[in-house]
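hey can u run this one w/ magnesium ion bound, need the structure tokens asap thx
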Amino acid sequence: MSDLTVFAPLAGWVTPLADVPDAVFAEKMLGDGIAIDPVNDMLCAPCDAVVLTVHEAGHAVTLRSTDGYELICHIGIDTVSLGGQGLTPQVQAGAKVLAGQPLIRFDLDHLVRNAPAVVTPIIVADATLYGVELIAKGLVAVGDPLLRVVPLAGEAVESVAGGETLVQETVVALSHGLHARPAARLVEAVRRHEAKVTLYHGDRHASALSAVGLLGLGLGHGATVRIEASGAQAAAALADVITFLKDATVEETPVEAPEPARAEGPGLGGVPAAPGLAVGPIHRLTRAAIPVETVAGSADEETTKLNDALARVREGLEQAATAGGARGGVMAAHGAMLSDPTLSEAALTAIGRGLSAGVAWQEAIAEQVAILLSSGDRRIAERADDLRDLERHVLAALAGLPIEGPSVPAGAILVAEDLLPSQVAALDAASVAGIALVRGGPTSHAAILAAGMGLPMAVAFGDPLAALEDGRDIILDADRGLIDPDADAEAQADARDTIARRKAEMEAARAAQGPCRTLDGTRIEMFANLGSVADAEVAVREGAEGCGLLRTEFLFLDRATAPTREEQARDYQAIADALGDRPMIVRLLDVGGDKPAPYMDLPVEENPALGLRGIRVSLADPQLLEDQVGAILSVRQPCRIMAPMVASLSELEAVRAVVERQGGKAEVGVMIETPAAAISADILARKADFFSIGTNDLTQYTLAMDRGNAAVAAGVDGLHPAVLRLIGATCDGAARNDTPVGVCGSLAADRLAVPILLGLGVTELSVPPARVAAIKALVGKLDLARCRAAAMQALALPSAPAVRAHVTKMLQEIGA
Ligand code: PEP
Ligand code: MG
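ok here u go:
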């Protein structure tokens, strides 16, 4: 092989590969070369060559030079996710091109705005065979000599042969198919084994050690691929390849959806997902694979099999949904997902292409999972678990197997890579001590279920948790997202004492029929946040004295059309009936921003948190507001009406006018969720019957940190002194008119926030139903004078962690 001169395919700045912000290129996993930060809009051929592949997203080409060198040109980083926007290929696979000939036109401006980087690596594949010398530096023009490629002495030898050949088929779940980055990672994974692995797709095949060859297969998302492996470690290599291709999370979107920030402290840091403390031995869960029949019968037979399995699973979910509560809610949501025709239609289409029912179902699920994962929103991505859960249930039904929940020894802490919602739902909450996950998300359904079951859970501990051995005794502090893996006998005994004490106090609070009071006898209303009749039933069982926040948008989340006044009236009445004669605060529809309402057709906004949301939506749609107010006023028990996201007095006046026009009588209150409302609380208090502070939104708007953005999650803490000062200002403004102040945001359910809130003047707390007894027990141990002193000190502290440390000490001193 003779030397090759590679000419600059772009005009721009020469950049070392090490500076490319993607390890696949920077660590030369695909090969050696150079990158150019472009200043023009056309990628041209770097040498005379044949085009091997043009990726369907138009962001990358592979070429074989006339001397046989293989090259990859990859425009920008993560540009595959642009789905072809701003990228226009000028050639097709198979074309012969001369150096300097146009390959891909790109919209530089669009790429700069929409991709993490536009720097473009130019790679010579397989760095073990060639040496690459850099010729140019600084600014280059298209066609300037850039690199010289020199063959190294000696050829690489394929070291593996012999043994049985293992064959398996799978479906590619990677959301953007096997493009450059995952191809490089797959090569890395296979290289670790003594095995020869070949991938077959259609009439093409490629060695799993050749990134360019793999790209040449054109494996898109959902493609079926056959894998052949031989050699001493063929089985392990085959398993790795299958796992890799089926793991849609390989394609996570790291830029838009970073991992939640982990807690810092002694031991292992994770993210709190459901509050509580646990101590016990680790019980590690490994998920058993469900066998999938890959040989297909006739399309009719496979369709019948799939329909039967779907019907059986649907029946099981409907049955489970009747349980009510968080578990029933999640099972109902799974039932709705299963009934979504998108899934079954995709699976039936795949059966039509000759796939078995099981493989077709896997393919349909993989497609939807990929869509969720590519959303860039971690909360949406967390819904992928629900689909994986459905995948397992239907595959088990097809295989005639029961789905069993994890069996966990009593008192153990369940440790797993991740947990599906149904696996959490199947746990015996009285016997399992807690849950710690290597991955997982704090807003997943699994986390919501754990919180509803009173199971402490923390997530995202990463590899350090995976490394802890089975049976090791640990302390899990799910309030702070910490694990102490080295707790000695004394620390464990202390933790057990704390758990036992809190449990006894909760039992006592549940049993106590009287109203909630502090130690010194100050009356604090203990309310619950509700979104369904089932919630109301749990809240009453737990000792809630009323509802401080009915999230009415939760009742109508999955609808395609707006609920009628009658439908609303029926639902509100059912919840009021479940509450008996306890008071109920109904919040007007709070949609827009991060809260979807498919039936509303709200405009897509550049800055949704600051756009049409909360009360602004209702005021923009007068009929919607009239209907909702009318429905609330029709409830037999008198309800209070609360407006979300208020920033100005005029919004409150507009709501009051509607109440009067509807001819009803109801107290009208304001949610304090914007700094504007908190600062002008004295003005609002003149016209408001009550305030309820939405600390979730108040925190995000005060700190200018998106409450749903995992990258800033660790900073979004309502105990930040700035937020506390606004809560203080709200209470002061309210006091001038004797307006009562409650808190219905998540600070109300936070043990470390409760003393401060009471100290600032809050007289009502509204918390998730499962937290009612615990918070009621805590309030009973607090002395208001001491809370006031603690609150005054907290306002002068510099940070939320300082406030948390301050209250932790105070609670320790009073034995709470
Ligand atoms: C809040 O913002 O604190 C609140 C209770 O409302 P939501 O969480 O529903 O926005
Ligand atoms: Mg809110």
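Residues 252-259 have pLDDT under 50 and may be disordered. anyway lmk if its weird
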